[in-house]
Amino acid sequence: MSIQYPFIPYVHAADDTLNPDQSALGNYLFMNQRRTVRDFSDKPISESVIRNLILAAGTAPSGAHKQPWTFCAVSNQDIKKSIREAAEKEEYDNYHGRMSEEWIRDLAPLGTDWKKEFLEIAPWLIIVFKKPYEFVNGQRHKNYYVSESVGIACGFLIQAIHEAGLICLTHTPSPMNFLQKILNRPEEEKAFLLVPVGYPSSEALVPDIKRKKLEEIAAFYR
């Protein structure tokens, strides 16, 4: 069996003096301030910021190192308007028949509805596409653990956005086929997540909710 990649010495990026306990606690306290925000400012963000956020997301691990993702960054106002109109059409149908009564009840305390004005207000939309397969030199090649890999990359993206002092929202209008059409993406790309990115508006509000405690989300086997 041939080895495609040469192996090189691993360079550990962490400082030898770094205290893992302090670092882990500091990261938790910082990330615990992250919130999903729907009230965006239209304050502009440079393209270079978005490029670096996407590069950070692209460092995520992936099955067989296939990197089965495409990040489409949209600042064009006409395209954002088209995305909003299509998203609101799907969401209206969701809230008026597609979603179960239980689902709607669970969403009610969060104050969400089918109106998605933030899709036009946020200065950037990052649409993440997953690629179950891709074409290389005209040949179709399968990718592996695609949803898992793209989900991890989206987590990296959300952390990077928070680290940059910005806010985001994970939006999943269903179905999302309209994104492939509006952005003229190839057949092998399927919309996975729509992430508006920006600054919070001066009057931004978030629901007063709490995250689960450690004992509710973890089990330790000592």
Quick tags:
8 helices, NADH Oxidase, alpha+beta, two-stranded antiparallel sheet, four-stranded antiparallel beta sheet, 222 residues
Instruction: Label the structural class.
Output: alpha+beta
Major sheet description: 4 strands, antiparallel
Q: Return the average pLDDT rounded to an integer.
A: 95
Rg from C-alpha positions? 20 Å
Give an overview in words.
The N and C termini lie far apart (39 Å). This protein is globular. The mean pLDDT is 95. It has one domain: NADH Oxidase (3-Layer(aba) Sandwich), CATH 3.40.109.10. Helix content is 38%, strand content 14%. The protein has a four-stranded antiparallel beta sheet. The protein has a two-stranded antiparallel sheet with strand order 3-4. With 222 residues, the protein is of the alpha+beta class.
Question: What's a quick, concise take on this entry?
Answer:
The protein is built from 8 helices and 6 strands; from the N terminus they run ααβαααβββαβαβα.
Strand and helix layout:
Blueprint: H1 20-31, H2 47-57, E1 69-74, H3 77-98, H4 101-107, H5 118-121, E2 124-130, E3 133-136, E4 139-142, H6 146-163, E5 167-168, H7 177-182, E6 190-198, H8 214-217
Antiparallel strand pairs: 1-2, 2-6, 3-4, 5-6
Helix pairs in contact: 2-6
